[in-house]
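This is your field. Have a critical look at the following sequence-structure pair:

***
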Amino acid sequence: MDAHSRGRADEIDPADQWVLNPQTGNYELRLDRSAEQPPTPTRTRRPAPSTPSPAPTEAPVPGQRRRRAPEPADAGRIPPQGRRKRKQGASRKKKVLLWTGGTMAFVLVGGAAGAYALYKKLDGNLDVVEVVGQNTSKGFAKGKAFNILIIGTDKRTGEGNAGYGDKNSPGHADTTILFHVSKDRTNATALSIPRDMKTDIPECQTLQPDKTIKTIPAEKDVRFNVSLGQSGRDAGCVMRTVKELTGVEVDHFMMADFNAVKEMTTAVGGVKVCVEKAVNDPKSHLKLPAGESVIKGEQALAFVRTRHSFGNESDLDRIKVQQQFLSSMIRQMKSDDTLTDPGKLLDLANAATSALTVDSGIGSLTKLQDLAGELSSIDTKNIAFTTLPVIDNPAEKVRATVVPDPVKAPQLFAMLRSDTSLTEVKKQQQEAKNAQTQAQAALLKGARSTAAEVRVDVFNGSGIQGAAQATINWLQNDQGVNRSTNRSNAPEKAAKTTLTYAPNQADQARKLADLMGLPASALKPGTQDAGVREPMTLVLGADFKGAGVPVTGPAKAPKDLEKVAADTQVCAK
């Protein structure tokens, strides 16, 4: 039986395999295979691709990894429902398929559960890693944002992948995306983390096959990509590294290898990409004409792996191409071509579950369906891809690695922590402004000086080394406040950031408060006017989160931050 005929045996409409659960109001798979239903025809399973035996020297990605055991047939049973009419209106069919398909492209858009006959197979496809110390019972709480780490490993597992070289490597965190989903489920931010960025990797623990726990010591100033595979680190170590780097709590991870790209693009019939000029890269074996092409399988893998076809041939330019590819894949998977084709949905479900390794918190098909439901309402225009802002590593004479931008990176991290969307910043800023009390509004109401007219001395009472100088750099380089001076440490640590000013400096104070996101409570007006050249006094307190990061209210996007929405077709340059 071919893929397109699954679920259609005996002319049964695919939508007839679903029933309305009156307790939840959702359509769910008919789990009661009673005598009133036609017998399920025998399905021919597609032979699994043969995988070469790994070389004896190959070290697996560590962690307690297991195949899901099939769940009991009665799992999730709901009371039997009366037979519904076989023929459904187009809108009902689409609603069911949308519910089934969800959203999870390249593990950002979720594949369908398909027919119940495949449920246990799909559930058993998943590889699951138990992350030491992870809370696996919290689920997806309503009204709470969550974060999923998408990890692409360069481990050469899977049919035909040993030919890419380095076949005995335990792999690295080659492609890493922190996927933040807003608490109201209206938008998401996909933050790419460069693999060649220098950072600190914290101590982490991994669960070994014999159930013992191995502690792997911390490393300082190393490439981000060694947070996986190297020294026995598992995906939980990548999660801890990202949390320490960004301050963002990572709830779950999904990890995929080369086969994920090949099999999932094939399952959806290919992904449309665009290149400004023809490509012929002998290293990745990518060959494309100028303009649009539809790619899948090995060609899709070559597209996301190439480093020599676009931009300045750096990993940062490769990230841009990967983001364009993922955006296109999201559009393809949310298109009617996929959502209304049961064959594609089932192929996609099989490919996605076979390619994924996940943490035990989402380590079942049911939990992945819950995740898909959380993501399904997000419009592609509100999924923003961006890259962690970096600068060249100042410690290197020959440029080989990068480090986080000391000003822009903390600003972007603050946006994620405060659940500020890259696509709705102005709206959220206005909401925060509307929430001010009348007293606060009155204090901040009035004329503003220009940035060039602001004079301020900055003292560091935050306890964070270099905070005053970082603030000066941001004020002068990004905001045009050139009459600002670093006065080093404050006499003592301060709990709150304060700005002290004279009555005739109120216009300057309001301008600086706007720039820094200072609340009205931080403004401390004096009683005597200041001299013409006398500066205001800014003391950074323990509430200081980083240069350019608002002390209160929604975070501001870094200046000149490059981002692309998932609904936008971009041609790789």
